[in-house]
Structure formats: C-alpha cells, structure tokens
Amino acid sequence: MQRRAFLALTASSASVALASLGGCGFALRQAPSFAFTTLYSGLSETSPLGVELRRSLQSSGKVRVITDASQMSEAQVVLEALADQREKVVLSLNSSGQVREFQLRLRFGFRLRTLAGKELIPATELVLQRDISFNESAVLAKEAEEALLYRDMQSDIVQQIMRRLAAVKAL
After folding, report:
1. Which of 45, 90, 132, 161 has its CA 20 to 30 A from that of 70?
2. Into how many domains does the chain fold?
3. What is the mean pLDDT of the chain?
4. In sequence order, what E strands does the chain have?
C-alpha cells in the first residue's frame, strides 16, 4: 500500500515538474535556420575544420555548400576563411629545462559576404586555447590527448560559426 502511494506521489510530482519546464521557455535545441540556401566555402578540402563545417551545414538539410570555384556564381553567400591555424606554445619548464606544460591554440578567422560584396559578418577571429601537461615518459599518450583536445576545440569553433551564420537574418 505504501509503495502505491509513493509511486502515485512521485508520478504526480514528475508531471508537475515537466509541465513547469514548458512555462519557463525550455525547449530542446533544434537545427538552426539560415537566411540563405547556398553557400560557397573556399576552405581547403584537406582542412579538418573545413570538412567538419561543411558536414554540419549540409546535415542541417537547409544549406547546400559549394566548394568548386567555377560554380561560385550559384551561391547566395561566400564564406571566406581568413585564418586557420594551430599553435603550440610552451607554458612552463621544470628545473632541468624540460617542458612541463603546453598551451594549445586554435585560431579561425572568417567573414561572410554576398556575391555583390555586402558584408553580412565582418572579419571575425575565433580563438580557443587549452592547457596540457607534458610528461616525457608518456609521449604517445600525450600526443593522443593533444589530438583529442584539438578535435574538441575544432568542434567548438564549428558550433560557434554555425550560431553566427544562423544569426544572419537577411541578405
């Protein structure tokens, strides 16, 4: 009998909590909507960031990405990559002069314009950085960790670009 009362109380409190989430403006994240349907990207085919950005744009199902320069006239907007760099900077050394910490940086600069030259997003630079400790006895593990951190930063930058592209409301 006590179990039934407990389950009934739990079920009613859960439904009240879910109903209150709707009133606060909570909604699941949805695919972004863009003011354009075709985009020309001059990013290199070998750029990992360019590949992930193209996949993200095309997976939305609302944007066709053109990479061939001869078909550039079909695009409504042009995404120009101004910088795409990975940097590794020494942060600290131990007493014998060996590296203890690195700082990994990923820089991506871009701008968005129409074919007519109207600037929709001015030149913008996104910079992400992560610190990583280094141990010479675990070099392979630290290289794998570095690759994972770069991939994580790359995904973050792609999401930031997607949000900025979705913020463009009119061509």
Report:
1. 161
2. 1
3. 86
4. 38-41, 64-66, 77-93, 99-114, 119-133
